[in-house]
Amino acid sequence: MHNTFKKLLLLLMIPFLMFMVTGCWDNVELTERAFISGVGLDKTADDEIELTLQLTKPSEVSQEQDSKTGKEPVWTNTSRGETLHEAVRNQFTTVNRKPYYSHIQIIVIGETLAKDGIKDVLDFFERDHETSLTPMVIIAKGTTAKNIINAKSDLENVPASHIRQIVEASSVNLAILKSQLIDVLKQLSSAGHDLTTSVIEIVNEDTDLNIKDMKIEGAAVFEKDTLIGWLSPCETKGLKYLLNKSGSGIINIENPLDREKMIAIEQLRAKSKIDVRIKDENTLLLVEVKSEGTIGNQEGIGDLSTQEMIDILEEETADVIKQEIHQVITKAQKEYKNDIFGFGEVVHRKYLGAWRQIKNNWDEVFSTTPIKIEVTFKLNNTGIIEKTLEVR
Fold this sequence. Notes:
Blueprint: H1 2-22, E1 34-43, E2 49-56, H2 63-69, E3 74-81, H3 84-90, E4 99-100, E5 106-110, H4 111-116, H5 119-127, E6 136-141, H6 145-150, H7 159-168, H8 181-188, E7 196-202, E8 214-216, E9 219-223, E10 226-231, H9 233-242, E11 249-255, E12 258-279, E13 282-298, H10 307-336, H11 343-350, H12 352-358, H13 362-368, E14 371-381
Helix pairs in contact: 9-10, 11-12
């Protein structure tokens, strides 16, 4: 009986032992891997795809190890090809470690390539089983993606992580638009909603380029998959309301007690909704925004805690939001003549019959259709003080 039990136990352990043995035979040591943190895509003068990779060396990433070895925690490499896949394979002519695409933080696309169309290069990332759909897609305005990927960071060992974290700050900065790869692919395949993405720009040219010499704000505007223009930071704020992506941020208004001074209203949250009404062949586009916040900073003196002042602050804050929305709508309708807000998606969903008739010239319909904007703002409180400090 005892021997039978031992045999049974051995039989149960065999699959586990086989897993332990076979599961490690082809493992690559972590220190021998090259994890890709950033990808740069450009179009060359001779019409090739230029691929720049920022690769992380795990053994050098931590500051403690970095100080011991004196080695850079990341290194970059550039290759070319007639297609992106060929450029990827050509990396192996100089890279001696297998690059892993599963940890990409950012995909930066140069302006020249973006103006030529981004669908073909994004196909690689959508098709490849190793790549996730979470990297940030950022357009390099006025420069190449190669320059951005090669930039250093004083705050992070991995510069791509530094850039990604700035884009993630879109939740507290109304002028930054967050666009992940999955969002870009959805918008490109969506009828009645043209694409907008994050933008990075060099503001201080330097021989040793650093991320502190750049700014990430505004948005890139596409017609289908082709870059056609840009939105300013103010216009991007309006865009985010229309996309229901406006989180917290600062809205500056004049102090009603001293018009030469300003008040910073901290928006805590906002909910937005767009809608379309079609009646008797007349179309109306609707925007409704409900926002709330508190006073973050008061310049000048005076008591803003009275109900009269609160009513004025709420009305004027709502007016600023409405102006930003109106500004970006005007630019989309009059200058770009394309729907970057998704009104076409609403028509497709609510009025399928009408959509079938107008879908082929929707941008023309959108650019001439009136839009009604309704904004309400609620001031929750004025902070922990009622009156600002008076210097005596």
